[in-house]
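Progress narrative, work stream C.
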Amino acid sequence: MTDAALRPHKATHGEADWYQDELPRAIRPYRGHPVRTLFTIAVILVLASLLGISSAYLVIEREQPLDAVTLGPWHAYPKAGTAEADPYSVAIYTRGAVIPLASGEGLALVAREDSAGRQLDPTCVYRIAGQTPSARLWTITTVNGHGNLVKTLSGRVQLVSQNLLRNADGSFEITAAKAAHSGNWLPLAADARAGDGLRFVLRLYDAPVTTGAALDGVNMPVIDRLGCP
């Protein structure tokens, strides 16, 4: 027997051995079929498009612009109507055919909840009390959950600051209800249902508080629920 036969055999490994089935699956090279790869890419693109469209639709459907400044139950959108408005806000206003107040005209604040954080219900009675930021004129209007005007028993849907009854310190109290009330009465929809939704829109005209920084710390009226049927 020769010396070569007695020496132990040394295994040699080349690049071709990397593709052996004995390698762990996690590190085993994979060469996918071109058609399967294209199909996977197409599915990913379709799912990503659907996700993007769905998320944009949900944001627009909520009808709540972004970059809101929150003051108790009130939300202001100082960038609305400016070049700094985000695309979602522009789409919301365009879809609802709403022309926001320009920064030089005034500011609109919207309340969708009362001061306790409960969604506003057009079948309930609310008390809106306190003071507003300084403004030459302001109005408060009732609209439904989609921002549309409603039909009321009195035929009006708003109050104007110049016609309000006020306390000695300048504060006021407004009763928002379907039926008529003494004092400052803000009519709600006569035939409203809870599912119709409710918003209070406070518009300040010729007011110095038209930016987010100016709104910091200002006093806003509280919204208290007095009762529901």
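Work stream C, second folded protein:
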Amino acid sequence: MSTVPSADPAFDAFNIFEETYKTVSSHDIKAAVLIPKRLQSGRHPVIINIHGGFFATGHSLFAPWFHPWLIKMALEQGAILISADYRLLPTPNGIADQLEDLEDFWQWTKAELPSILQDGVPDQALDFEHLLLVGGSAGGYCVSQVALSHPDEISALAMAYPCVDLKDSILSEGPPPGKPTVLRFPLEDIPSKEEGLKWIKEKRGTVASKGELEITPYCVSLSQNGLFFSEVLEHNGVRLTTNELPLERLEAGARLPKNVWIFHGDNDSVVYLHQSEKFVDLARTKLPEINLRFDVAEGKDHAFDMDASVWGSYPASKDAIAFLTKAWLE
């Protein structure tokens, strides 16, 4: 196992390893394994995290988008945390490339990672009987897709302000009249449509699985101008079908894990609350047997939980984490 230094003080309580789970065009795509430094020997519950970032940026150890409550939970419960990279859009085949990576990551985690861990850290083991899957924003889409493909392998699913409706008009038409700009960007700071399309052309032919904040304005531009769906999510003749659309998969009979927690701010400026509401209504109709908790945070914008002080003052946070912990570990 390849040890990497703590990329941010947020991860100082962990020993961190990175492993390649697949290679595309000579580019290694990796997963990070975070093991609490004070973890005792034995088998430990597992948390799998899939990062967000407009489908186009971020990475497995990008601290600004790594939920602080998730780090705290891993340390308190003695869990091994696995965080995935994947190809960042735009890619030749759009979202289809990303979904291929996520399935490859899932299979690698279950089939190969246990032996890799045994060789590198022989006193630690993964308890997949207690597996929590977590993702926010674009990562919420990612984990919804993984969960719909592997419902019986997941103890609990947590989705934060998830982008579960890729056909939502904000991605194909831009914000409707009266709505704020995407991510509340000042209009003067949003690149032009032409600049956004130029960025896509430059990036399309390069495989990348780690990104930073500098590309966010281009994603905002493409969404603000109604081009994100056609130019980023779909491409190269690949048209989204039921397999790429969580709402349609639910409607068609796909199942979810038995325990699901979703939370979303009602003032979200990029993934509108109605996306989660559609998903929750459909899940409750189609899967009444699941244990589903849905929290709507009044007045909160996108990614509000990334600020630990804001999250700590949110009235539902304590009960929600208790719900998730019980669902995951019992």
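The longest strand covers residues 124-136. No further action is required on this item.
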